[in-house]
Amino acid sequence: MKLSFPKMFIYLILAAAAILSIFPFYWMFVMASNHNSAINSLPPAFIPGAELVTNFKNVISTIEFFGAMWNSLLVSTITTIGVLFLCSLAGYAFAKLRFKGRNFLFIAILVTMMIPPQLGLIPQYIIITKLDWLNDMKAIIFPGLIDAFGIFWMRQYISSNVPDELVDAAKIDGCSHFRVYWNIAIPVVIPAFATLAIIRFMYIWNDFLWPLVVLREESSYTIQVALRGLIDNYVRDNGMIMSGTFWATVPLIIIFLLLNKLFISSLTEGAVKS
Amino acid sequence: MEQVKAQSQKRRKFWNEERKEAFSGYLYISPFFILFAVFGLFPILFSFYLGFHKWNGLGEMEYVGLQNFKWILTDPIFWKSLSNTLIMWVLGTLPQILVGIVLAYALNSAIIKMKGLFRVSIFMPYVTSTVAVAIVFGVMFNSQEFGLMNVILGWFGMDPMSWSTSEWGVKVAISAMVFWRWVGYNTIIYLAGLQGIPKELYEASVIDGASVRQKIQFITIPMLRPIIILTVFTSTIGALQLFTEPLIYIGRSYREEGITVVLYLYREAFANLAFGPASATAIILFIIIIVLSSINVFITNRIGR
What we know:
The complex is a heterodimer. Helices cover 75% and strands 0% of the residues of chain A. By secondary structure, chain A is mostly helical. Chain A starts with a helix and ends with a helix. Chain B is flat, with a radius of gyration of 27 Å. The N and C termini of chain B lie far apart (76 Å).
């Protein structure tokens, strides 16, 4: 088959972009599996070595790797479940219930999205100190439950996918408002949950500044904060450092590859509608 | 008996359907407002208060008026952090948008096979953590001659560069991290925008004899404009809040070549315990974000008109 010039050009661009996107992952693996001396020689190692296990053992003896992974998993999961519940509940109220000031309150929530999170950083830290929540997962979970985008997202979805007739019929049958939300709205919004869950889980998992400020003891570190501990040594063992980042990244990559269709479509949905 | 009946009737009247519905409504949205009051609104107001006070976190607060602002605005490191942030915003964000549009256009062209594979690869950087990216790039942009980037420079016969200490080396390295992590994300969003453009528009333009360049100029860019505005908006706000990459890359030295506004804020607050100047920095950052966002919207609105 002969390729026409523009076709070849497009393939070339895409292939280059794909290789540049994947290369750092490969490089991470190469270094995670090589001894420091192979990395720090000229030319450096370009193919995987045999030190994968040794390097990871060094990681475990330097930071509390598994504890930090567990902490991250815990806060991200709890926060995500909380956000799904609270945002769908509020979204339902804004979409289907009539009360005074509804539009004003909704706009007020949207306006909060404009505020940079660093603006309140110091007082937030003081509040956490006063609550005695330093080094406590609650310091990450509770502030993480505020999600203006989530409420906006849920309201849009419920407005256009939960028919008013169904809600009214349920009310006439004597359902409480909460029952209507729980039995009629929730089953309909499951696809919107998937999107919001992915976005929120990733956000909490990747957050760095806030955990760095409120988690001061190693036992409370999330994986992002713990990874930083790898590079703080005077002697830089790059094989060990890369092993830590590699194994902290692998679970995310596996989840992504399993869910990639959902992942990508969820992002585009969010972008096009807002 | 009569009394009880009257009372319950009264209660029933009070709890009529309308009131019940309104009560449920307020109840369901109250978690946001309660949490926001405690962890959002109060801290913001308190930041504005703190900006005018001298405080180290313990002891008495002392009102100092505009002194914190004067202190920051005469601190060369603050101006350095601001110019660094703006330079890295330009270096990291502009290429993101241009390259993102090109890649989305390529992915969207009908003649390409293996679209799924290309799409997944290009999007993958977004799924890693910022800290991991900063560490990996930190090793790639090692200043020693065996650092990967210096090896590559060597292939082209160039001298190794001190990526972690030179004025431009640090900025290029940090911008590269930002660019690499976000370009795929923008590509996917532009791709969604491109797929939303009705095919009839292109077909009609072909009948009218439009060239590729004309199709891009008069159909693609104008139809994509709302999405370009959105990405410029979000990436600008993100760039102004740059923190993780420079902190991991330049470490606790807070080197001047790579210090950003949020890093400056963090250093003032948690390394120097100067909560007043740190809050003043936060307020200035807030103002800059509002001003730059408005300028952004204004300029992007004119593109493709």
